[in-house]
Amino acid sequence: MKVIVAKDYEELSERAFEIMKAVVQNNPQAVLGLATGSTPLGLYQKMVKDHEREGTSYQKIRTVNLDEYAGLGPENDQSYAYFMKKNLFDGIGIPPENTHIENGLAGDTEAECARYNALLSDLRQDIQLLGIGSNGHIAFNEPGTPFSSETHVVELAESTIRDNSRLFEREEDVPRRAFTMGLKNIMNAEKILVLANGANKAKAVRGLVEGEITERLPASVLRMHPDCTLIVDEDAASLLS
Ligand code: F6R
Fold it and tell me: Which of 7, 101, 165, 177 could share a disulfide with 171, CB 3.0–4.6 Å?
């Protein structure tokens, strides 16, 4: 795993943008695996600005997102579908039919997971972008998730519900279940780009870079990927030896 320490969030977002832009330029039909959350927002803003100023085209790009809350549809402003539309898709002119995410409203969750797994085998990610949870989760693969997992429905860990409650009016409003790509779906990507900023990620980052490769720290699976880059700011890197 290649580790880049950026001095701050701005530099982290710029380095991530350079990597993402190279993928889009090399292959205008690339499949981008995308993430939600606070971490990629700086990168998404740079992609939008670049599209506006330089005209980088997303007409033929396809995207697959990591995860979605169960019970929330794309019209709900807390859904990840809504987040992606607002923070990236509307700003880069990508045709909506080229963007994919699990259907949070699916009644038959098993069928929905099977549909998404089939989609992911057709649309292998040229690059998969990831954030990391303070407990070491990637996507919503919480500690203990098998490395062999594919798309599934998870009960979110209490720590994840707490972390994510900042985005909801009340902690009780955070959905308890979510659809998520599995670790095997993530590892199938050609290239992986992990971003982490802030002191609350330092422990998970240390585990990812220097700890044991174990299902207790789902992100540690990434050390077995042949082309994985981690970009951290100085705060997130503060516990690295
Ligand atoms: C988001 C996702 C999560 C986040 C992680 C970090 O699609 O799958 O794993 O990447 O929880 O979240 P932030 O970036 O908000 O700290």
Answer: 165
